[in-house]
Amino acid sequence: MRGLNAIAADRLRRFVLPGLAFKAVVIGGGYATGRELAEFFLPAGPWGGVLAMLLATLIWSVVAAATFRLAHAIGARDYRTFFQALLGRGWVAFEAAYALFIVVVLAVFGAAAGAIGAAVLGVQPLVGTLALLIGIVACVAWGNASVERVFLWVSVLLYATYALFLVLALTTIGDRIEAAFAAADGPAAGWALGGVTYAGYNIVGAVIVLPVTRHFRSGRDAVIAGAIAGPLAMLPALLFFVCMTAFLPEIAGAVLPSDHMLVRLGHPLFHLGFQLMIFAALLESGTGAVHAVNERIARVRGRAGLSPGARALLALALLAPCMLLAERVGLVGLIAGGYRLLAALLILVYVVPLLVATLLRRGAAEHMIPQPAPGEPRG
Question: Considering only CA atoms, which of 200, 209, 205 is closest in space to residue 76?
Fold first, then answer.
C-alpha cells in the first residue's frame, strides 16, 4: 500500500502539480471573481465565449508543453535562466515585461481582495487587501515546499467549490442557462481575439511555475504536464462562464460577477464559502507570482540562497507598492486596460520566440536523423 501511495504521489508531482500551479497563477482576482470572464468572453455571447475558452485552453497547453520541455532540456528552474537561454542578451526584455505583469496582477489581486472584504464583511477595502498581503508573505517565506502545499490544498478547495456551485446553479437557474444558449444565434464577431488576448497575458504562468517542475524525470514528463495544464486551468472558468450566461446582459457590468450571481442564487452560507474560496485563490495566485521573483533572486545568489526572513522581506517590498496601486485604479480599470497591453508584450517577447525555438530544435533534431543511402529501403 505504501508503494502504491508513493507511486501515486510521484505521478501527482510530475504530471499534475505543474498544471495545478499554472491554474493557481492564472485564476487570480479577475478569473475567480468572474470579472475577466465578463471582460473577454461575455461580449462574444454564450457560444462565442465557449469557443474562445477552448481556443485559450489549446494555446495554454501548447505553450506550456513547449516551455516545460525546453526548461527541462536546459535545466531552468526560474524565469531568468529560461529567458537567458531563449533570448540571449534580450532576456532583459522579458524581465521588463514581467515587472509590468507583477505590478498589474498584484494590484488586481489587492483590488479583488478589497472588494470581497467590502462585499462580504462590510469592512473597508484596505482591510481585505492587507489580509491578502500578510497571507502571501507567510506562504512564500518557507520556499518551494510551502508553496507546493498551498497549490495542492487550495486546488482541492477550489475544484470542490466550483463543482458545488455548478450543481446549485443547474438546479436553480438551469432553465435560464438553456434559454441563453438557445437564444444565441452563434459566436459573435471577435470571439477569437478574446481567446487569444486572455491566453496571451496568462500564459506567463507557465514560466512562473518553473520551480515546481523540479520533479520531471524526462522531456516526456514535461510535455504531458504541459498538455494537462491547459484543461486544469480552464475547467472551473468554463463551468462558471456557462452559469454567468443566465444573467446576461446585466452581469457584464458587475464589478464582482460572482457576488452578483450568488446573491441571486439565494444560498447565503454557500455565498460566504464561495467568497472565501476566491480569497484562497487570490492567495495561491499571489504566492505563485511572488515566489517566482524570490526564486529568480535565489538563483543569482547561488548556494547562499534566501533565508525565510529574506524571502518574507522581499515579498513585502514587492507587494506593498503594487497593492496600494489597487486602491487608486480599481478592479475593472486594471483588468480592462492593463491586461490587453500585457497580452501583446508577452506574446511578442515570450510566445513567438518560444515557438520559433521549438520549431528550430525539432528541425535540427530531424536533420540529425541518419538518412538511408540512395537505393536503400527507408524505415
Answer: 209
